[in-house]
Amino acid sequence: MSEKSAVHRRGGSGVSSLAERVLELLASGQASTRTELAGLLGAAPSTISLTVSQLVAHGLVAEQGTRSSTGGRPRKVLRLGGSEGFAVAADLGGRHARVGVVLPGGSVTEVSTVPFATAEGPEVALPALAETLEALAERRGRELLRGVGLCLPGPVDVDSGVVTLPARMPGWNRFPVRAWLEDHFGIPAAIENDANCMAVGEHSVQPAERRQSIMVKMGSGIGAGVIADGRLYRGGTGAAGEITHVRVEAGDVPCSCGNTGCLETVASGAALVRILRERGLDVGSIEDVVRLASDADPEATRAVRQAGRYLGMVLSANVNFFNPDAVYLGGLLSTLEPFVAAVRSQLYEGCHPLVTKHLVIERASLGADAGLVGAGQLALQRALAHALQAVTAQ
Description:
By secondary structure, the protein is an alpha/beta fold. It has helices at 18-28, 34-41, 45-57, 122-140, 177-185, 194-205, 263-267, 269-278, 286-294, 298-322, 337-350, 353-356, 370-392; strands at 61-67, 75-80, 86-92, 96-102, 108-115, 145-152, 156-157, 162-163, 189-193, 213-218, 222-228, 231-233, 326-330, 360-363. The strands form four sheets. The protein has a five-stranded mixed sheet, with helices on both faces.
């Protein structure tokens, strides 16, 4: 699902100072030398060197070997102090959760899918999930666990760490998910909606020069996460990327927002299930839609192509306005070539040539792990922010 946070002011990790930005870039793997940090942050090399030296003195950053450079002295490679640390993370769905261990730099390991009873509410679902995550941490080394991250299929108030008015998470409204996790694990935790987690995860493994991007999740619902100047952009109230309720000239099906003709009503996985059932096909889930389209069923393929065109129409306006370096497609529908081709075709048709001249349009390289990696990265960033606050308060 895709709804965005109802309230946001500063961001989940509280990242604002230069030192925090340095830690964030090292944690995500986007930079590993002082030169790279200076280039990405637009700061003077002397300023970066001083900041790094302070972080080294506090044990938050360490120097490990050197890397050769063209025409100059070898550059010292930077890493997080105690970078053997890790986060455990979970990407929550309606009935299952994808869980794993996320390392600094964006790599993920020990990934598995476990049952998750979303509909039974947080008091029942979270303790069972916590046991699974604890088991992961114990196998890896509990003393090295730095943070816990959750990727949630609903709107998140990042500042207060709660879910707000989720359409498909009965009993979760205003539940203090982040506080519950921090009380249980005794370490910093981060929670974020699925599209934003996917945007953060995918950005962490993409080339550093791609500083602006839009990640679109196409599953049962529709959502988008925005990376601006290399960082997750949430907007004034946390609703940046809320494309699911953009109206298209494609019918008058009522939407959960109270309007009719929203993108969600004609292009989401849930909409495709409804459309194909109306056409007489035996479908009950988005997985059925994907299966039929993968088997070249003509009705399913036609519906999937049309959904891609509708999404491309809405994205065209956003891409023209934002001029990103890349558009990444994730979620189950992104596994279907007719859908991806339709989105790509519509973007080239609907955008100015200058906007699409170097635009990358592709499936998320992390696939189903994008949200998991993003949740882990946000947890590590929050842990680093806490550690920095602790040492600077001394």
